[in-house]
Amino acid sequence: MIPKKRERVGGFEKVKVGEFIYGIIERIEYDEQHIFKFQGEEKEPTEAVRFVFKLDGYEYPKRSRWMRFSTSERSNLYQKYISKLILDAHPDMLFNFESFKAMKIKTIWSESGDYQNLESIFPNDEKLEVKEVE
Prior knowledge:
Layout: E1 21-34, E2 37-38, E3 41-42, E4 46-55, E5 62-63, E6 67-68, H1 76-85, E7 104-112, E8 115-123
Antiparallel strand pairs: 1-4, 1-7, 2-3, 4-5, 4-6, 7-8
């Protein structure tokens, strides 16, 4: 027996893959007790962050993956976002992440099966200047 084909419910639409898509960082989402899984095992709950994008020509927002809320040199958050979007970025810098809101960006997406992931992100104008917190 084969299950009936179901229609997708609203809230999800695929974006073009491998080309620039422009938009803004609409908001930042936080989870103070996010549970990451690695090779089927749950890790200790930890602070996490993800970006929500409003992309030109798309009705629904797209989201990045959840990332550990760490700005260390080897973290995905630093390598993929902070170093590319912030002027004079350096590892372990402390700043208000709400500074990213409404930033104009250009993105490139990749696809793996049914999932789409942000491959690269760049500022559409200048890199963001942020004030570090002490």
